[in-house]
Specification:
Blueprint: H1 3-24, E1 26-31, H2 36-41, E2 44-46, H3 48-57, E3 62-66, H4 69-78, E4 83-85, H5 101-110, E5 115-119, H6 124-128, E6 132-134, H7 139-144, E7 152-155, H8 158-168, E8 172-174, H9 187-196, E9 201-204, H10 210-215, E10 218-219, H11 222-231, E11 236-240, H12 245-252, E12 257-260, H13 275-284, H14 293-308
Parallel strand pairs: 1-2, 1-3, 3-4, 5-6, 5-7, 7-8, 9-10, 9-11, 11-12
Helix pairs in contact: 1-13, 3-4, 4-14, 11-12
Bound molecules: 1,3-dihydroxyacetonephosphate (13P) and iron/sulfur cluster.
Length: about 300
Amino acid sequence: MSLASESILDNRLLSRIKELKARRRAVILAHNYQPDEIQDLADFCGDSLGLSVQASRTDAEVIVFCGVRFMAETAAILSPDKLVLMPEPKAGCPMADMIDAEQLRQLKGQHPDALVVCYVNSSAEVKAESDYCCTSANAVEVVRSLPADREIIFVPDQHLGRFVQERTGRDLVLWPGYCATHVLIAEYDIDKARRELPGAVVMAHPECSEPVKAMADELLSTGQMLKFVKTSNATRFIVATEVGILHALRKVRPDAEFVAASARGVCPNMKKTTLDKLVASLENLQYEIRVPPEVAARARRALERMVEVLPA
Ligand code: 13P
Ligand code: SF4
């Protein structure tokens, strides 16, 4: 297909999405790792914290969530009166599946006096077993707000957990979960990128491995990366996180140079959303994401605490 006919097709799809969105009174929320074209047409594009806040505040009747399952579940828990849809319901987060509610109950049994903080990248059932929820943007602040004399269990990401331990000086009980995408970014990738882009500022997501984080200049959630580059005087950046964020970063700072630390930093689940699936989602009101009410009621407490804590 020629480029011209592809763009006619895209334009048709885009106007169809606009028309359906108005008909359904829908809002499209997209994570910063989504494909470029999905980011471009979303009403709000952001990090897990920003998306959760948007989902809890929107007055739309339908939320179409372009991201992974735990994000849509979070929206459904925070906005129980809305219809929450995912264009691709099989888009999961392998890290979120690394601990289940039974495993967390067993861990709690070993630390009966501990408070439980779970990363938002977790199932609704795990959130229901937790006292507090956090994202990578406010994990440090959430842990800092807890009483100094209480033991803290932190699940499921060991790498975010170690970052929080370092920043807060608190000794956390960690779970050995990890993001299979972020741990693919290696120290030699940073060295190579630094040779390609001398003098660049290295920004890494807290889900990266400890040696990679030790090489970074800034450790930031995706939303914090966007904020950081907006006001930074630097013009070259190496980005150690999922590659989708580069599109958003380039829009914020068109004058700057951005390179991905590694082309392997791709989250296959985030790339499952397509324009066609988005149209089908709005057209057929599919696929509804529901959380059983008794699980949602318990998970909501931890999530409401999460959206109350602003990052520093
Ligand atoms: P952010 O909350 O920083 O956008 O990260 C979400 C995520 O899944 C990182 O892998
Ligand atoms: Fe999950 Fe990693 Fe994908 Fe984020 S990048 S959604 S943590 S698999």
